Each structure stands twice: as structure tokens, then as C-alpha cells.
Amino acid sequence: MPETISPARLSDIPSFKNEWAVLLECVSPVRDPQRLSELLRLADGARLLLLAEEHGMIGLLSASLRDVGESSTSSGIRQTLLERQRAQNFLTLRLTAELLRLLELFAAKDIGALVVKGPVLAVQAYGDPAMRSYGDLDLLVRQRDIRCATESLIASGYQAAVSLSAIDAGKIPGQYLFSKPDSKLLVELHNELTLRYFPRPLPIEDFFARQIRVRLDAYEAPALAVEDELVLICIHGAKHFWERLTWIADVAALVSRQTSINWERAAASAREVGAEHLLNTGLRLAADVLRAPLPLKVATLVRKDVVAAKLVARILRWLPAAGYAPPGLFERAAFRLRMRGGLLAAPAYLLRLSFSPTEEDWQTGGKISHNRWLDALRRPLRLARKYGRTDKN
């Protein structure tokens, strides 16, 4: 068995330089097996495993190492990878089966739902639902259907993190989270109100109108159009400061595999929600970090985006640490400002994010606050306590 290393060690980014180079080559949609073999000679197996796991890249690492042959890695590393990939495969089967059951449950209640990320993105980007690591199921559901969906999930054995009384009180969480403690299943429902990191309100009816079907086993799951999914995962990556390679790998794999992307439609989808810079940031990261090929016209437009270039420069400073060397409070605020761009739009966006309370602000000890102003004031104070300790500015 390989040596066990604490994930906290990832905060020492330079010490993982060789392993980071290997992981980037493994994840690239245009990886070079010969270069990968050369890089593996300089890498430590235990460190590589830790790095891949924390970045959610076990599936791609396992597939890449199979391509270069067994002599490139130790038997202990291969065995550990095999065990972790097997566990991921079993989890994927369970989650996919549960997803199909939930879609049938919602259809019976006439609740419209679209699958986002998870197994659908894995199929679209990698051609294999088990290639991408995910531990929950994400569905897009209209806000008007949230109460019915919550009742249905509770009746199906789930526990709701957001109670029916909170829904009736008009409280909007970061997501509607449901769990089954006995099976460790997690489901998140999102809608036009919870996706607050979209600079402008999500045009949910347009997303439903453009939906496509993605085959999962013998079932065709309702999903976002590829162009809308691309915009969504770029905004999701920016929401999390692109701290993990898995989000960049998704963008790189999606644009590499889906060769019929309508780039004008993707740009229009981003403009609808004021996310042009966020789309360009995701595309530039995919191209610069993982060598994802972009059409010449798209690549030219992406490189002209000065805001995206500045965001990418910041992201590359903390990316290898997989969240263990996070940006501090003021750096986070500066990043949020740049996400939106524009002299007036940027501060308005930051203020909205800073004063829009989530369940952490209006739900404490099982009790629901009914003072919206107090909830809004709690949020920036809570964020300051949470992230201020890591601030180095």
C-alpha cells in the first residue's frame, strides 16, 4: 500500500510540482503517452494519488496510467487506483439508478426537471458516467415546483435540509438539499432563485425550452443543451474560485468531445445572464492549463478578454493546492468584482452576493429567522469570520 499523506500537505504547493505535471498530462484531452511516461519517472506515487483524489481526478488518472503500461507505476499504486476506481464505479451505478427513479417520481407529479452536471455531464464530456467523480445528484427545478418536489422527496424517504415551513416563509437557500442518512445519498435541487452566482437571473424557461435528451443506460435523461451546460459549469467553477482541477477538466473535455457546439448559441447564452467573462475564463483555463483545442475564432475572442486573463492569473496561484491554500477575504472580494466586470455592474454584483442570505444566515438551531434585514446583515459578518482568518492581504 502507498504511504498515507495528509491532504493538508497540499498547502505546500511547490513540493507537489512533479505530481502536478503528471496530473495535468493525464487530464489533458490531448495527452501525450510518451511525455506522461517521462513525467511519471519523477513523480511520487502516494503524492500523485493524493493530488488526484483531492482534485476529483481518480477516474482520468486510472485511465491514463492504463494507457502507458504497468511498468510506469508501482503495483501498490495500481492496486489502490483499482480499488478507488471500483468504489467510484459502484457509487456511479447507485447514483444513476437513483437519478432515474427520481426523474420518474417527478414526472408522475408533473414536476419538470433537468439533470445538470453529474452522470449527464460525465457522458457528454467523457463518454462514460463513471469517469467523473461526483457524490450527489443535481437537478434544475422551477421555483414554483419546489414545495411539491420537497413533499415528494420526503415521502420517498429523504430528509430535507430546508423545511416546508421555510419554503412557505419564502426563504431561499443556496440549494435545496436532501439526504438519505442510511444510504448516504444526496440530492440538490436548483432553480432561478438559488443560482445566485449567475450575474443576471437564470432564464429558466429558455433552458427548459432548449433541453435535450442524454442517454444513460437504456434511459434518456432530460438535460441542458450543451451550450447552456457549458455556461453553467463555467459559472459553477467561478463560484468555487476554480480551486479544483475537475471543473477545468469538465470544460476541456466537453468542448473537445462535443465538436458540434454552436459557439454563437453559447455566447448568446452567456450574454443572457451577464456571464461573458466567466465563460471566457473557463475556456481560457481549459486551453492554457489542459491544452484543450478551441476553434480559432473562439480562441481569438477568449484571448482578447482582459478580465478573463486577470481572473486566470489569480486562479493559477491557488489551483494546484485543491482548496488547501484558499484566497483570503479581500482576494475573494476582488475576484467576485472581476467576475462581473463593469464599473457599476461589478460592485452591484458583489453587494448582492454579500447581502443575499442563505440557510446558514436565516436558519440556526432548527429555528427560522423572520427578519429579512437581520438575515442580510448576518451574511457579510459570517463571511468575514469564515474567510478572514485565511486572508494574507
Task: Name the descriptors.
alpha+beta; 9% strand; Beta Polymerase, domain 2; five-stranded mixed beta sheet; 56% helix; 393 residues; single chain; 4 domains
Could you write a compact summary of the structure shown?
This protein is of the alpha+beta class and 393 residues long. The chain has helices at 17-27, 33-40, 45-54, 58-68, 75-108, 118-126, 146-155, 164-168, 204-209, 226-239, 245-257, 263-272, 276-290, 296-304, 306-318, 329-340, 345-355, 359-362, 372-388; strands at residues 113-116, 137-141, 159-160, 176-180, 185-190, 212-216, 219-223, 363-364, 367-368. The protein contains 19 helices and 9 strands.
Describe this entry's structure for a reader.
- This protein folds into four domains: about 5-75, no CATH class; about 90-225, Beta Polymerase, domain 2, CATH 3.30.460; about 225-325; about 330-393, no CATH class.
- Helix content is about 55%, strand content about 10%.
- It has 19 helices and nine strands.
- It has helices at about 15-25, 35-40, 45-55, 60-70, 75-110, 120-125, 145-155, 165-170, 205-210, 225-240, 245-255, 265-270, 275-290, 295-305, 305-320, 330-340, 345-355, 360, 370-390; strands at about 115, 135-140, 160, 175-180, 185-190, 210-215, 220-225, 365, 365-370.
- A hairpin with a 2-residue loop joins strand 8 and strand 9.
- The two termini are about 40 Å apart.
- The relative contact order is 0.10.
